[in-house]
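User: I'm putting together a teaching handout on how sequence relates to shape, and I'd like one worked example. Could you take Probable peptidoglycan glycosyltransferase FtsW from Lentihominibacter faecis, show the sequence you're using, and then write out its predicted structure as tokens right after it?

Assistant: Happy to. First the sequence, then the structure tokens directly below it.
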Amino acid sequence: MRSGDFLLMIFTAALVIFGIIMVFSASYYYSISQDGTAYSYLRRQIMWVIAGFCAMVFGAAFDYRRYRKFAIPLLILGVILLALIFTPLGHTANNATRWLKIGPITFMPGEFAKLFVIIFTAWFLSEKPDRIKSVTRGILPLVGIAAVYGLLIVKQPNLSTAITVCGIIVSMMLVAGMKWRYVFGTAALGGAGILSILLFMKDTYWYQRMTSFVDPFQDPLGEGYQAVQSLLALGSGGLFGVGLGKSVQKNLYLPEPQNDFILAIIGEELGFIGIVLVLALYCCFLWRGVHVAINAPDQFGMLLASGIVLMVGIQVILNIAVVTSSMPPTGINLPFISYGGNALLMFMFSAGVLLNISRHAPKNTGVE
């Protein structure tokens, strides 16, 4: 059996190593203010990278075809975990309840939900490929699952993860052969929902979220604070940046810069050129992922690889949109780079699954 897509491994490792460097740089002052040492976030990130490497090795070694039998149980488990957030097991931080805390263990069900829906959707659409041509047998069941997962995640609240989960399902349906008119219908429903919030729910949390990003400088010390600090960081970086480790915004101006807004610190320290190079690295990763999907030996493998590629791609786009104040600020990390154990673990495991699919590719496909 093949060893897997070598270039995919290289690009994954490059993103993870760059993430370690940038987490240390971005968290330097925040870590000192919290823990009295500049190295606390660096140590944790390295520990999560080691755990993620183990997860990636497992994903690369475990035959991807065996995930079929876990598709339905994983989907149900995802709903249960998301529902448990609204019980006493739910843990609240930064005005959001997105975590489950069971004894000393704290984790985000939303991160696992992404992978669960990818596995289920890949199984559902590959088990009977003609399902996608039927509204009642194929499209509506998946739209219903997207609605259930989306509503449970939005209620936390976590808009970006809800968009990611729903976007993954709809995009995988398109890959499987769904007609575009159904996508336009779904988009129209989503647009109607946003319009109803803007017109009839002006005193709600969601109205403030959806309007604050349009002009964050109207309320620079309130709802627009994080977006304003992010834009200042990006603007300060210019073309070549102020230099690695020399960010001003990470000095307790931009809240938790090592997490969702780490791209702003990259832009400030490494400039526009640095961001372009990071995006080029993501494009290389996605290119190899698409290559794995195209050369997968069966439809389940093709859809599973496509779902993972879509998850990474959608999340990169959403993170850029948040950091540049092109959408409401909501928790969405930069894949492989942002600080955060659950997300890094899932992304590295997913990269391992891609490697496993590439190991089963037919000969003479260029997947080595």
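A couple of points you could highlight for students: Residues 6-359 form one domain. The chain has one domain: 6-359.
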